Amino acid sequence: MRRFEGRYPGTMRYASLASGSRGNCHALTDGERTLLIDAGISYLQIRTRLETLGWEVGSVKAVAFTHEHSDHIAALPVLLKRTDWCILATEETLQAICRIQGVTVPVNRWIPLRPGHATSWEGWRIVPFSTPHDAADPVGYRVEAGGMAAVIVTDLGHPTALVADHCRSLDLLALEANHDVQMLREGSYPPQLKARILSRVGHLSNESMAELLGRVRSSRLRAVVLAHLSEQNNEPELARFAAEEVLRDSGIPLYVASQREPLSVAATG
Fold first, then answer.
1. Looking at domain 13-266, which of 3.40.710.10, 3.90.1150.200, 3.60.15.10, 3.40.50.2300 is its CATH number?
2. What pLDDT does 268 receive?
3. pLDDT by residue (tens digit) across 188-211?
4. What gap in Å lies between CA 8 and CA 10, rounded to an integer?
5. Interior CA angle at 212 toward 40 and 70, to 5°?
6. Do residues 145 and 125 touch, judged by C-beta distance below 8 A?
C-alpha cells in the first residue's frame, strides 16, 4: 500500500479501500476534500483503511452510490447516523437503496443525479453515466477536478459505446476485471448465477476489460486500476496479464485492487 503524504496543489489521489464481491468502496481526494464512491464495507473499516493510507477521515464530505446491490451500500445506515456526509445518487437508485436498507435519506443530505448530466460538488465536476447491469439505475462515475479526470466503472455486463465515451481523455481509470470466463464456467457457482454474471447485464470479464481498455487507452492515461475481481473466478495474475497485453510499451502503471488491502494511487502531479 502507498501513503498519501499531505496536501499538494494540483494533485489528486485515488484509493480502493475494498474491491470485490464482499464489499466495494473507492475514494478520490485532493487532500482538502474526499469523495467516496460506494460504501460496501463497514464504517469502521472505511475509517481504518483511510487512516492506514494516511488520508484524513475528516476530509470525507460525501458518498456517491453506483447502484443498490449489497456489496456497494452496506454502510449506509451507519453513515446516516454517524456522519453528516452527503449522499449522491440517482432517484431510482436512492429509492432502491432505501427500500433494501429500510432507511430514509433526509432531503437536505441528498444530491440528486441524472445519468449523462454533470453535477458540481465542492468545485469538482461529477458525471454519472449509465452502465449495463441488473440494477435499478446503475452508473459509473467520471470525476474532473483541478485539471484531472478519473473514471470509476465496475459492475457492467459488457463495454458499451457510452461507457467507452466517458472513459476517454483520462488521467486515471479504475475498471472492472471481474472474472476469467473459463474459471467461471468450470467453477462451483450454480448455473443460474453463472448465467447472470456472463450476461450482458452482469460483470465484465478479463477479455472484455481488455477490449474496453484498448479502445480508450491514450497518452494522457497515467494509471489503470483493475477492480472488482472475483476471489473464486479470477486471479490477479490473469487480470493483470490481460491488461498488460493492451498497455504493452505504453509505460502506463497498472495496479490491481483487492478485497482486503487498501491501495492508493496518484492520478496527477
1. 3.60.15.10
2. 60
3. 999 999 999 999 999 999 999 999
4. 6
5. 15
6. yes
